[in-house]
Amino acid sequence: MSAQEDQVALPLRSHTIFGVCEAIGEDFGFNPILLRIPLAASVVVSPLMAIAAYFALGAAVLVSRLLFPRPKNVAPVEQAEPANEERELKKAA
Q1: Residue 57 has pLDDT above 70, yes or no
Q2: How far apart are CA 91 and CA 14, in angstroms?
Q3: What would you report as the CA-atom Rg of the chain, rounded to the nearest whole angstrom?
Q4: Domains of the chain: which residue ranges?
Q5: Ramachandran region of residue 70, left (φ > 0), alpha (ψ -120 to 50) or beta?
Q6: In this predicted model, what pLDDT tens digit does every residue of 5-23 receive, in sequence order?
Q7: In the predicted model, is pLDDT for residue 26 greater than 80?
Q8: Within a 10 A sphere around the Cβ of 21, how many other Cβ atoms?
Q9: Which segments of the chain does DSSP mark as H helices, in order?
Q10: pLDDT of 73 strictly over 70
Q11: Could you tell me the CA-to-CA distances from 6 to 2, 15, 61, 76, 87 in Å, in that order?
Q12: Collapsing DSSP states into helix, strand and coil, what is residue 80?
């Protein structure tokens, strides 16, 4: 079993609300804390705008996950045999 199979879906995790910041962090390869902090700070300035932005980001994540779902089981890619030129270089070495 891989680590991916053991994980609970984002909205059902105890440390997330809807998993929006974590999903965006996973998709773009950065720590979700870097998105959570400014979003939490914006709640102090304008709570309505912060909530609207959060739900807009959530809708964007939902649409992207529906349009481009991740494959369930990806078979390992087998290495192709080296081209004739590469084999000749290896023999010459």
Answers
A1: yes
A2: 57
A3: 21
A4: 3-73
A5: beta
A6: 556 665 556 666 678 888 8
A7: yes
A8: 25
A9: 3-6, 20-28, 33-45, 47-67, 84-92
A10: no
A11: 7, 16, 22, 19, 42
A12: coil
